[in-house]
Amino acid sequence: MTSLQLPSGAPGARILGFGSYRPRRRVTNDELAQTMDTNDEWIQGRVGIAERRWAAPDETLVEMSVAAGGKALAASGLDAGDIDLVLLATTSPPTAIPGLAPRIAHQIGVPRPGAFDVNAGCAGWCYALSAAADAIRSGSARHALVIGGERLTDYTNLDDRATAVIFADGAGAAVLGPSDEPAVGPVVWGSDGDLHEAIAIPEGEAGMSMAGQAVYRWATTKLTDTLVEAMRRAGVGPEDIDVFAPHQANLRIIELMAKRLKLPERTVIARDVVTSGNTSSASVPLALAALVESGEAKTGDVALLLGYGAGLTFAGQVVVLP
Amino acid sequence: MSEDIQTGLAEILEEVAGVAPADATPEKSFTEDLDVDSLSMVEIATAVEDKFGVAIPDDELGNIKTVGDAISFIQKNQ
């Protein structure tokens, strides 16, 4: 049997910089209450969202992703020509064909990278982060741009108070490169496909539907174990976590998870959902970018990440922040 | 038996939703009288499952409207 040659790869991968794009238009709960039967107290009490960003027609998924990706590239200190892998995690492309990663890469000026879209629901960015880190470690890529971008309002019935108050738009991104010290921990990922109907656009319908109680139960009972396992496999414990940045779906889920993990007082908890709403696969990089920009997250901080959502899918990992 | 269940349920209601134990009487509606929202109902259900060893599927959860409904569900399924 012929033995094939493999590249030597890198000991580990590291995030080199973040970038984000938030749509210009802020939509407050009071604004939504003018057109649907809801109110600020109800929304904040259920999901903890005070306002969200909705994209204008010119803020397309490609434009937002290009903006976030370009900023991440600038923050990394690399040139577009250094990137050889571009991933777009999204659940809300305007059409099924083609995938958008090649076009986004082209617009950023990345020459002929490996490029593909990842649809793993709201876990998409954490799935893509792991795929990119593994590609760098195996030698399939040297530097990767991992974008999470969404225009969920395209797939939300904006008159439906159950979903319109939750979903929003935006893009976040990170650039990864090789590292002698591993700074992207092993992923703990999986799926519960028996719950595929819990978050879905039913066939023949235009808008997303969500079985809120079922998803809440799943998130608050099954995913703590994922987070604990992600820390164990990375060789860290709750006391080591400087930043906790789970998917920004619902503030109550975030607070419950933080409580169950017994994270120390000093841990910075991402609460970007309050001002950004649920941006699916954009939520984790948007939250991380905001914490890095504000200085709440510092270079060398250990961050525990978790994506989870439609599929149902989940992925958790520990990373060291740039 | 049902007193034990009512006491255990009252403890869960206090812990999850801040309901005073004296208010957790069988005729009370979770949403109307005790101000428990749909997501807190899920937390109550999972706590009841752990405490009483019963399974409350999501479609059953919608039928449990009062403290008394919860007590009889636990009694029937324990």
Automatic annotation (TrEMBL), chain A:
<comment type="pathway">
    <text>Lipid metabolism; fatty acid biosynthesis.</text>
</comment>
<keyword id="KW-0276">Fatty acid metabolism</keyword>
<dbReference type="InterPro" id="IPR013751">
    <property type="entry name" value="ACP_syn_III_N"/>
</dbReference>
<protein>
    <recommendedName>
        <fullName>Beta-ketoacyl-[acyl-carrier-protein] synthase III</fullName>
        <ecNumber>2.3.1.180</ecNumber>
    </recommendedName>
</protein>
<keyword id="KW-0012">Acyltransferase</keyword>
<keyword id="KW-0808">Transferase</keyword>
<feature type="active site">
    <location>
        <position position="247"/>
    </location>
</feature>
<keyword id="KW-0444">Lipid biosynthesis</keyword>
<dbReference type="InterPro" id="IPR013747">
    <property type="entry name" value="ACP_syn_III_C"/>
</dbReference>
<feature type="domain" description="Beta-ketoacyl-[acyl-carrier-protein] synthase III C-terminal">
    <location>
        <begin position="232"/>
        <end position="319"/>
    </location>
</feature>
<feature type="active site">
    <location>
        <position position="122"/>
    </location>
</feature>
<comment type="subunit">
    <text>Homodimer.</text>
</comment>
<dbReference type="Pfam" id="PF08541">
    <property type="entry name" value="ACP_syn_III_C"/>
</dbReference>
<comment type="similarity">
    <text>Belongs to the thiolase-like superfamily. FabH family.</text>
</comment>
<feature type="region of interest" description="ACP-binding">
    <location>
        <begin position="248"/>
        <end position="252"/>
    </location>
</feature>
<dbReference type="GO" id="GO:0033818">
    <property type="term" value="F:beta-ketoacyl-acyl-carrier-protein synthase III activity"/>
</dbReference>
<keyword id="KW-0275">Fatty acid biosynthesis</keyword>
<feature type="domain" description="Beta-ketoacyl-[acyl-carrier-protein] synthase III N-terminal">
    <location>
        <begin position="116"/>
        <end position="193"/>
    </location>
</feature>
<dbReference type="Pfam" id="PF08545">
    <property type="entry name" value="ACP_syn_III"/>
</dbReference>
<feature type="active site">
    <location>
        <position position="278"/>
    </location>
</feature>
<keyword id="KW-0963">Cytoplasm</keyword>
<comment type="function">
    <text>Catalyzes the condensation reaction of fatty acid synthesis by the addition to an acyl acceptor of two carbons from malonyl-ACP. Catalyzes the first condensation reaction which initiates fatty acid synthesis and may therefore play a role in governing the total rate of fatty acid production. Possesses both acetoacetyl-ACP synthase and acetyl transacylase activities. Its substrate specificity determines the biosynthesis of branched-chain and/or straight-chain of fatty acids.</text>
</comment>
From TrEMBL, chain B:
<keyword id="KW-0444">Lipid biosynthesis</keyword>
<keyword id="KW-0597">Phosphoprotein</keyword>
<protein>
    <recommendedName>
        <fullName>Acyl carrier protein</fullName>
    </recommendedName>
</protein>
<feature type="modified residue" description="O-(pantetheine 4'-phosphoryl)serine">
    <location>
        <position position="38"/>
    </location>
</feature>
<dbReference type="InterPro" id="IPR003231">
    <property type="entry name" value="ACP"/>
</dbReference>
<comment type="pathway">
    <text>Lipid metabolism; fatty acid biosynthesis.</text>
</comment>
<keyword id="KW-0275">Fatty acid biosynthesis</keyword>
<dbReference type="GO" id="GO:0009245">
    <property type="term" value="P:lipid A biosynthetic process"/>
</dbReference>
<keyword id="KW-0596">Phosphopantetheine</keyword>
<dbReference type="GO" id="GO:0016020">
    <property type="term" value="C:membrane"/>
</dbReference>
<dbReference type="InterPro" id="IPR009081">
    <property type="entry name" value="PP-bd_ACP"/>
</dbReference>
<dbReference type="GO" id="GO:0000036">
    <property type="term" value="F:acyl carrier activity"/>
</dbReference>
<dbReference type="InterPro" id="IPR036736">
    <property type="entry name" value="ACP-like_sf"/>
</dbReference>
<dbReference type="GO" id="GO:0000035">
    <property type="term" value="F:acyl binding"/>
</dbReference>
<comment type="similarity">
    <text>Belongs to the acyl carrier protein (ACP) family.</text>
</comment>
<feature type="domain" description="Carrier">
    <location>
        <begin position="3"/>
        <end position="78"/>
    </location>
</feature>
<keyword id="KW-0963">Cytoplasm</keyword>
<dbReference type="Pfam" id="PF00550">
    <property type="entry name" value="PP-binding"/>
</dbReference>
<keyword id="KW-0276">Fatty acid metabolism</keyword>
<keyword id="KW-0443">Lipid metabolism</keyword>
<dbReference type="GO" id="GO:0005829">
    <property type="term" value="C:cytosol"/>
</dbReference>
<comment type="function">
    <text>Carrier of the growing fatty acid chain in fatty acid biosynthesis.</text>
</comment>
